[in-house]
Design goal:
This protein has eleven helices and ten strands. By secondary structure, the protein is an alpha/beta fold. It has a five-stranded mixed sheet, with helices on both faces. It has a five-stranded mixed sheet with strand order 8-7-6-9-10, with helices on both faces. Helix 3 links the parallel strand 4 and strand 5. Helix 4 packs across helix 11, helix 8 packs antiparallel against helix 9 and helix 9 runs parallel beside helix 10. The radius of gyration is 20 Å and the shape is globular. Bound molecules: adenosine-5'-triphosphate, magnesium ion and fe (iii) ion. Magnesium ion (MG) binds next to loops.
Length: about 350
């Protein structure tokens, strides 16, 4: 199926177009610059920016794909989770287009779309099967690491069966990167800034905590503890703040690169260790990585190492498809159309806290 995907859950206005698992266009316009001076996304500014960027972004995506709206088989749009006002702009636009062009509408889950993007053909290659679509192998899992979420999932079917195995109990991985970068004066967004600063630092300079790894939280395979597959990053943030403070109090220069590298190592170590163990204990043999933090170089490297050691096949999308975009929404939409899932009503609301199990609405 030829599907148009619309994404406006945070600060990226994305319109993507796919045919099955083949990506034809992926246009993204970001209001990131407008949020920099506030050190975080301001919902009202993001919503207004989506309103201004939507039509030009749509036009460019259609031109890139060389199609018109009447050619598409369906329109997919992020219904949640995300910022309510921002989601509403994309949803309203999608409903308007679906009504005007008489196309079925699919309201989809942003988090599942972060995973679904991994089904798109590698650049330039077309590996779509007879149905024009690749699907997931059996026993697939997903590690979702983004600005607002950190989750390990079991995926029976991307269109009907997503199960949460574990998640963060406080900050998300991306949030930890953003907050730590602010502490270190590295600016916003923090993920790419820490990734870059860490490149020249020593990851062993500081030993920062790995949250929820004590036996009382993890238990054993036979008697798993409540937090065996969960993460916590708030203690790590406090430890970094204390380290920075010690240098400041002593009047010594803060070793930013060493702290960034040590922080990154702590996050990546605990994310990959727990994800690979959860995958193994749930019989997962293929792991898909998704979400903005999946752009992190050290995460990609250590996860690949640990998956290889555990005999798990790892699939990592290209960096450009890890952060928010419209192609991921279109990719999930195409899977829903192909699976014969019923389209959404034109009345669907934005759901800012949509759980990951609710794949489409
Ligand atoms: P969610 O998907 O949970 O709703 P979001 O859409 O805001 O949240 P994404 O766009 O998926 O999040 O990812 C943005 C996050 O990814 C930010 O927190 C950013 O700091 C982080 N990030 C981006 N690049 C990197 C990197 N190279 N290393 C670490 N983190 C990164
Ligand atoms: Mg963003
Ligand atoms: Fe996202």
């Amino acid at each position: 199926p030829l599907v148009l995907g619309i994404e406006t859950s945070c600060d990226e206005t994305g319109v993507g177009i796919v045919r099955g698992t083949h990506m034809l266009a992926n246009t993204v316009s970001s209001s990131m610059e407008e949020h920099v001076r506030f050190g975080g996304v301001i919902p009202e500014i993001a919503a207004r920016a989506h309103l201004e960027a939507f039509v030009p972004t749509l036009r460019q995506a259609l031109d890139t794909a060389g199609i018109e709206l009447r050619d598409v088989d369906a329109i997919a749009v992020t219904a949640g989770p995300g910022l309510a006002g921002a989601l509403m702009v994309g949803l309203s636009a999608a409903k308007g287009l679906a009504l005007a062009a008489d196309k079925p509408l699919y309201g989809v889950n942003h988090l599942v779309a972060h995973v679904g993007v991994g089904l798109l053909d590698p650049a330039g290659e077309s590996v779509a099967g007879p149905a024009g679509l690749r699907t997931l192998p059996e026993n697939t899992g997903a590690l979702l690491v983004s600005g607002g979420h950190t989750e390990i999932l079991r995926i029976g079917s991307l269109t009907s069966d997503v199960q949460l195995l574990g998640s963060t109990i406080d900050d998300a991985a991306g949030e930890a990167f953003d907050k730590t970068a602010r502490l270190l004066g590295l600016g916003y967004p923090g993920g790419p800034a820490i990734d870059a600063a860490a490149a020249t630092g020593d990851p062993r300079a500081f030993r920062f905590p790995r949250g929820l790894t004590m036996p009382k939280f993890e238990g054993s395979v036979e008697a798993p503890g409540k937090h065996r597959h969960n993460w916590s990053f708030s203690g790590l943030k406090t430890a970094v703040a204390r380290a920075v403070e010690q240098f400041e109090v002593a009047g010594r220069p803060v070793p930013v690169a060493d702290i960034a590298a040590s922080f990154q190592e702590a996050v990546v170590d605990v994310i990959t260790a727990k994800a690979v163990r959860a995958a193994g204990e749930h019989g997962i043999t293929t792991l898909m990585l998704g979400g903005g933090v999946a752009a992190n170089k050290r995460l990609r490297e250590l996860l690949a190492e640990r998956c290889a050691a555990a005999g798990i096949e790892l699939r990592i999308p290209p960096v450009s498809l890890c952060t928010d975009n419209g192609a991921m929404v279109a990719a999930l939409g195409a899977q829903l159309v192909a699976a014969g899932v019923a389209p959404s009503s034109l009345q669907i609301p934005a759901d800012s806290s949509q759980p990951v199990e609710r794949i489409s609405v």
